[in-house]
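Subject: sequence -> structure tokens, single chain

Hey, anyone have a minute? Need the predicted structure for the following. Not urgent.
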Amino acid sequence: MMARSNTFSAPRRHSKSIYLGKVQVGGDSPVSIQSMTTTKTANVEATLSQIYSLAGAGCDIVRCTCNDGEAAIGLAQIVPRSPLPIVADIHFHVEMALAALEAGVAGLRLNPGNLRKPAEIKLVAQEAKDRGVPIRIGVNAGSLHPDLYKKYNGVTPEALVESAMNELSLFGEVGFEDVKISVKASNVVLMIEAYRILAETVDVPLHLGVTEAGPPPAGIIKATAGIATLLSEGIGDTIRYSLTADPIEEVKAGRVLLEALGLRERKGLDLIACPSCGRAEIDVIAVAKAAQEALEKLNLPLQVAVMGCVVNGPGEAREADLGIAAGRSKGHLFIKGKIVGVVKESEMVAALVEEAQKIAKEGVEARLAAADPNAQAEAEADRLALLENRGVDANNSITKIEQIRRRIDLSE
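Reply:
Had a minute. Here:
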């Protein structure tokens, strides 16, 4: 039976589950986040340092390239010290796949477009089966097998899926079933359709990603367009943002997406801020940036709001755990929409940090009970003063609407 999420009408696609180390992928497990190291795998200490940073950012599984003997030797030293399960990325050489298995990796990724000989593919599958190591069939539009490219007259969703199914068939010949599949492309529409077809064809876990998405912010938008679309349809068991950036950014993007979709419990900061308007009493962008930098260091699972004015700020962000709204050179601190304190404008970010720490230690209810009894009245006085000073229609919207109506009336 398919389990429904709290966010989407589409049920989560049911799949078999596999394990990479202790991390379950598929089944009823949470959608996991992956990334890939950018260091030379042979540089053991640098690679481990990056893996620990990825783990700290919320990564669940990490992939390392195994492209030569030195990399395989590096994996043998990395695997036992890694806080995350290691997947070895294999492209052209069957020897590297076998060496990575010998090094003790938790998983392999094989590209059917690059490792093509059936006998070699079945050999790796048999070795992986004997060791209980899963394999990802990692189809990539940029390295599609020439025969399939010719058959379909180019790269199509059907060609990507057939590539995966051909590999899966070879695995089946040796009784290997510990598999997950990806059918990635840099073309978002192509990628989405390939995964939709695949989801209807197999019941193995699916690894989502838009390959070669590029640098942020465009790369994040492209990857999100593909990954979020499929997740909203209940498709996908593990994800990777393939960005031209520090891999930490891949993990951050993945975590934000899953938390935003309600697919993972929030573990870090979710900062929201108003876009500013005619009533803004502060530079919202600058304060939000400073607050983000200060609060991210705390690594607390809080939603924090930075609002430009006290007129509508606390009400608009009433669902936030904590927030600050500006008013007459002061910051109005609020928790769940209730004003709990007033601080100097220069102390707004520091007040947010201090209150966030107290909420984490004491809880929301305790902090609401400790509210300054005079804060609400002071905030209301500032709100009324701001309304009097700037007017109800601070952005002159009413005047514009009246002009539009007159123009429409005249045109009739």
